[in-house]
Design brief:
This protein is an alpha+beta fold and 133 residues long. The protein has a domain of 87 residues: HIT family, subunit A. Helices cover 24% and strands 29% of the residues. It contains three helices and eight strands; from the N terminus they run βββαβββααββ. It is globular.
Length: 133
């Protein structure tokens, strides 16, 4: 298997089997099937699975199959992939909460990002208030 290393915001990434991956990334390992997750939807570009610590009746994470550290890096590197992630989030929200949802991307540890593989939180299934912090 050929792999090449390229810079990433959270360390090195490499291209394996056509996908950009980071060897120590939890979400890359979930995408690869090495770590179990409750998958609720997927497409060629992204995977959606239930959050282990849900904050609402519907709390699903949507991750691109390619590794990018955060939403800004993804938008700069591959806007079409970002669109695919958002569209899968919409699909999940439609099936899980009637299409009404919040989609949150945390960027950086101070903003609450704990896994540095971009992921959108699809949150819904209840009336949501607003709490910016």
């Amino acid at each position: 298997m050929t792999s090449t290393t390229s810079p990433g915001g959270d360390g090195s990434t490499r291209r394996e089997a056509g996908r950009l991956t980071a060897p120590d990334c939890l979400f890359c390992r979930i995408v690869a099937g090495e770590v179990p997750a409750t998958v609720v939807a997927e497409n060629e570009a992204a995977l959606a699975f239930r959050d282990l610590d849900p904050r609402a009746p519907v709390h699903v994470l949507v991750v691109p199959r390619d590794h990018h550290a955060d939403v800004v890096q993804l938008a700069a590197a591959d806007p079409a992939l970002l669109a695919a992630v958002v569209l899968l989030g919409d699909e999940v929200a439609e099936q899980e909460s009637g299409g009404q949802f919040r989609l949150v991307f945390n960027t950086g540890s101070e903003a609450g990002q704990s896994v540095f593989h971009v992921h959108g939180h699809v949150i819904g299934g209840t009336r949501l208030g607003w709490s910016p912090a």
